[in-house]
Design brief:
With about 425 residues, the protein is of the alpha/beta class. The protein folds into 2 domains: about 1-155 and about 305-360, Periplasmic binding protein-like II (D-Maltodextrin-Binding Protein, domain 2); about 155-305 and about 380-415, 3-Layer(aba) Sandwich (D-Maltodextrin-Binding Protein, domain 2), CATH 3.40.190. The chain is built from 18 helices and 12 strands. The strands form 2 sheets. Strands 1, 2, 3, 6, 7, 8, 9, 10, 11 and 12 form a 10-stranded mixed β-sheet that branches.
Length: about 425
């Protein structure tokens, strides 16, 4: 579950990120070496790699991969699993002693980039054309790809297969439209469980905004689009499901997320990312489930994606070796190894076919790569999303347009 928190800009992480960027920008301007011009720094100093690990499996896999690279390259490198990644990143930058390579979230990119803390190395990557375009957009700031996407996740529909069959439904009933989702949610709702559940937050409900043709900001987070007609229609639809009683938020069910709602038998369907598979297998091993793509909205297929990248510090004394390490860690070989070790999806297109063949039950998550959109990346947007999340929990009794009008104002204020 730690991985879920790291990938999503959920309330706790958004606040932590905001604090980290605030600390980083309080009198510490960082290095000006953020462009791709000029030679990279080089030294014999060992590299430090700071990660926000989901657990022992991830730490072991990354440590092993970095160790293999270190042996072949002759450059010493040490992996550190952070207790609090955002805090430790901020402290490192503030002290002018950052890790050379580190996990970096979409929500943190703009703040660190604007402070001059990051090396913008995207154009130097030998495999830059292999990354999914939507991921490239998420890590592009001021027209520059700053870092290599590490891995990613999309949201899709997760179904309890026993409840599905008990309601007389078959694979032909998998919902393809919003109307069909509403219909099966009604059939699945009983006195003991609700048809559909998800977290009452943008990081789940936002998938329906994308399906309607909207999102909180445009693709490069330079324009606020929160109160668009598309977004209003998406929240109005979800409000209808809530008021009909065929959908409840995970919080209303007394659960922390949709995976728990599904696992405890309180919901027959949920909207979650591929991290839910680890949660279900570890905590609810007897629950049978199927993953299918979310239904299309008025604008077609749509979902949200979540990702981290491999950041490189502008102050790193060995940027040249850091870049070579990142290129190795984002190869098909290493990314597929990470997938087997701790369940992530590779960020490169060349690994898609093999990943699908190795993970057929999860194929729907990767199918979303072609139409997924990222969360806002503008500096300060994480705080705005956190504020919206706090209001979406009460969507059933709120006016969608009013909620989105306030979010629009908050986002516009960031762009002035």
């Amino acid at each position: 579950m730690q991985r879920r928190t790291r990938w999503l800009a959920s309330g706790a992480l958004a606040v932590a990120t905001a604090l980290a960027l605030s600390a980083c920008g309080s009198g510490f301007s960082g290095s000006s070496s953020t462009s791709t011009s000029g030679a990279l720094t080089s030294s014999k100093k060992p590299l430090t790699v700071l990660i926000g690990s989901s657990g022992p499996a991830e730490t072991k896999a990354v440590t092993s991969a970095v160790g293999d690279w270190s042996k072949s390259s002759g450059t010493d490198a040490k992996v550190l699993a952070a207790n609090n990644l955002d805090q430790q990143l901020a402290q490192g930058f503030a002290a002018k002693k950052p890790a050379d390579v580190f996990y970096l979230s979409t929500g943190a990119l703009a703040g660190y980039a604007s402070n001059g803390d990051l090396l913008s190395y995207g154009s130097m990557l030998s495999n830059k054309s292999d990354f999914y375009p939507s991921l490239v957009k998420s890590f592009t700031y001021n027209g520059q790809l700053y870092c290599a996407p590490k891995d990613f996740s999309t949201l899709q529909l997760v179904i309890n297969t026993d409840m599905w069959k008990a309601a007389g439904l078959t694979s032909s009933d998998y919902p393809k439209t919003w109307d069909q989702l509403e219909a099966v949610a009604k059939k699945l709702t009983t006195s003991s469980h609700v048809g559909l559940s998800m977290n009452g937050q943008y990081e789940r409900m936002g998938a329906f905004m994308v399906q309607a043709g909207g999102n909180l900001m445009n693709a490069d987070s330079t324009k606020a689009t929160a109160n668009s007609a598309a977004n209003v229609s998406a929240l109005t639809y979800l409000k209808k499901l809530l008021n009909e009683g065929v959908m409840k938020t995970a919080k209303d069910l007394g659960q922390g997320d949709g995976g728990q709602a599904l696992g405890t038998g309180q919901a027959a369907m949920t909207v979650e990312g591929n991290w839910v598979q680890g949660e279900l297998s570890n905590d609810y091993p007897n629950v049978k489930y199927t993953v299918v793509q979310l239904p299309a909205g008025k604008a077609g297929m749509g979902t949200l994606q979540f990702s981290n990248c491999w950041g490189i510090a502008a102050d790193s004394p060995n940027q040249k070796a850091a870049l070579k390490l990142v290129e190795q860690l984002t190869t098909k070989q290493d990314q597929l190894a990470f997938s087997k070790a701790f369940g992530v999806m590779p960020s490169i297109k060349s690994a898609a076919s093999e990943w699908k063949s190795e993970n057929p039950a999860s194929a729907a998550f990767l199918e979303g790569a072609s139409y997924a959109q990222g969360v806002p990346t503008a500096k300060g947007s994480a705080d705005v999303v956190t504020n919206l999340d706090s209001q979406l929990e009460s969507l059933a009794t709120s006016d969608p347009k009013t909620l989105l009008d306030q979010t629009q104002k908050n986002l516009q204020a960031l762009l002035k």
